Amino acid sequence: MTETRLIYGFHAVTAKLRQDPDGIREIFLTQSRQDARARDLARLAEANAVRLVQLEAARLDTFVGHHRHQGVVARVTAQPRHLKLDEVLDTLPEAALLLVLDGVQDPHNLGACLRVADGAGAHAVIAPKDRAVGLNATAIKVASGAADTVPYVVVTNLARTLRELQERNIWTVGADASADQDLYHAELQGALAWVLGAEGTGLRRLTRETCDQLLRIPMFGSVESLNVSVASGICLFEARRQRLARV
Question: How far apart are CA 174 and CA 215, in angstroms?
């Protein structure tokens, strides 16, 4: 029997309906939701021939274990989530644009990083197996569908993975507040892997030393650092901007 998993929240379920309706087994919608958002989702499910079941809110609570599902839960086909790095790199349609996360612990930050990676057209998010949150249900919800569109590669040794990327001529750039050069004065048009550290601690020493280059995001206000998902968005979109400017 094919394994399934649950996704929840209007963003995540709607994104899945639009991107991969065949991967949805059924959608559960609370009976109390009669607003325009719920009606739009019901119409989208009908248009894609996806079964929709209305249930009491308490039933949905038992599915996901809390009340943050916004009244909608979908049972979807479980897809292989932890791809091998070679499987991603061997099939890229353009020079690699990757996001490497060094020990992100907060699932909300991971989900947001996946979302910005999708928006910037990054080809994969890479993270270590240990000392990282992993792709759990909360991260999937926050990603708002990006967990199904951006490959998530789990590796056992991050420094070794960075060296493997370098062997493939992918330039590895660490985001570091103490770097001498800022990202707006750097060449970021080629195959690139942005490497960002965990909340509060930044890049680990070995990760920092393994990167080809360190760059900082210039800060003009009173705060000293940014949330890792915000920093990821700035870094990835600057690389994408430079690529577009070259065309």
Answer: 6
Same domain for 49 and 132?
no
List, for residues 156-211, the tens digit of each pLDDT value: 999 999 999 999 999 999 999 999 999 999 999 999 999 999 877 889 999 999 99
> Do residues 57 and 17 share a domain?
yes
Q: What is the pTM of this model?
A: 0.74
CATH of the domain at 160: 3.40.1280.10
pLDDT digits (tens, 9 = 90+) for 112-150: 999 999 899 999 999 998 888 888 878 888 887 788 778
Count of domains observed in the chain: 2
Starting at the earlier edge strand, list the strands of the sheet with 124-128. 82-83, 152-155, 124-128, 97-102, 192-197, 171-175, 213-215
Taking CA 110 as the corner, what is the angle to CA 14 and CA 25, rounded to the nearest 5 degrees?
Answer: 30
Query: How many CB atoms are closer than 10 A to CB 118?
Result: 20
Residues 93 and 124 in one domain: yes
- For the stretch 210-235, pLDDT in tens is 999 999 999 998 888 889 999 999 99
Q: Which of 103, 89, 112, 124 is nearest to 232 (CA)?
A: 112
Q: What is the spatial distance between Cα 119 and Cα 122, in angstroms, rounded to a whole number?
A: 8
Q: Which amino acid is located at 186 in the chain? A: A
> What's 202's DSSP letter?
B
The CATH number linked to 51 is 3.30.1330.30
| Pairwise CA distance, residues 127 & 147, whole Å | 14
Range of the domain at 107: 82-246
